[in-house]
UniProtKB/TrEMBL annotation:
Record domain Tyr recombinase: where: 99-272
Domain Core-binding (CB): 1-81
Protein's name according to its UniProt entry: Integrase
Taxonomic lineage: Bacteria, Pseudomonadati, Pseudomonadota, Alphaproteobacteria, Hyphomicrobiales
Any GO MF annotation of the entry: DNA binding
Region described as Disordered: spans on this chain: 274-293
Annotated Pro residues bias: 279-293
């Protein structure tokens, strides 16, 4: 490990950045240095600009992926190397397109879950939908996180390193109890193949893709799709946006409000003005021809 990498790693630890964020930032800076074949402290603004053009035009990365690379470089040069640059100009963030996720209907969710054969995979994917969890949160659930007395699930250190409680529905509790009676997990609610480790996100994503193929659904289905479905279905049954924000663990209400554009009972609640147009008046019938015979 180089001295610069060690210093950046320590800077992130001091600021208590999430472990996944630390790994991602170090990887992005490593790719940046490898691209030029030089240490980042020997590179300047023009090199950074050249690298951004490379990521956009040659690598053709999505704006979201470029955001991660820029966030890592901003941390390196602003915090670790203590540059006093105007970072909004030196490292501008590309504008993200405003896209809406494709959401499964309740019937499609049930059809998908019916195709998850493995009992552990079925339990964790059901939990993602029934509690609106991120996959990273679901895989790290422990047995003690399930509070059947208060009918809540404690999500420890979710995104942003924040704890929160989410709903534990009676049907989900029954599903988890049936699963526990079969596999008897000890510490992690959903243990992985490696002793003492939880199931990996990759394993859950693979099981999800397999069930989606078996279900014959035309819509894309990922573990995060189930979280989207949770939010939209709550909106469509009358839950308010603020409650959904707390359940999802969103920092900003504006993030949750995006689901208002998807919920059919919100989008289609107002009648089209076409329905208000007066009905066309039928033309009068032609005069009857006289009868001569």
């Amino acid at each position: 490990m180089t001295q610069l990498r060690q210093r950046m790693s320590e800077d992130m630890e001091v600021r208590n950045l999430a472990l996944n964020t630390q790994r991602s930032y170090l990887q992005q800076v490593s790719l940046f240095a490898r691209h030029f074949g030089r240490s980042p402290d020997l590179l300047g603004r023009e090199d950074i600009r050249t690298y951004q053009v490379y990521l956009t035009n040659e690598k053709q990365l999505s704006p979201g992926s470029i955001h991660i690379a820029i966030a890592a470089l901003r941390f390196l040069y602003k915090v670790t190397l203590e540059k006093d640059w105007a970072f909004e100009d030196v490292l501008p963030l590309p504008k993200k397109p405003q896209t809406l996720p494709v959401v499964l209907s309740p019937e499609e969710v049930q059809r998908f879950l019916d195709c998850v054969a493995d009992i552990k995979h079925h339990a964790i994917l059901t939990t993602c939908y029934a509690a609106g969890l991120r996959i990273s949160e679901a895989v790290h659930l422990t047995l003690t996180a399930i509070d059947s007395q208060r009918m809540v699930i404690r999500v420890a250190q979710g995104k942003g390193q924040k704890d929160r409680y989410v709903m534990l529905s009676p049907k989900l509790l029954a599903t988890l109890r049936s699963y526990w009676k079969v596999l008897r997990p000890k510490a992690w609610l959903f243990p992985g193949d490696r002793p003492g480790q939880p199931i990996t996100r990759h394993a859950v994503a693979h099981a999800c893709a397999k069930a989606r193929d078996l279900s014959g659904l035309s819509k894309p289905v990922t573990p995060h799709s189930l979280r989207h479905a949770f939010a939209v279905h709550l909106l469509e049954t009358g839950a308010d946006v603020r409650t959904i924000q707390l359940l999802l663990g969103h920092r900003s209400l504006a993030t949750t409000a995006h689901y208002l554009r998807i919920a059919t009972n919100k989008v289609c609640a107002t009648s089209s003005p076409f329905e208000l147009l007066p009905r066309p008046v039928p033309p009068p019938p032609p005069p009857a021809e006289p009868q001569y015979f």
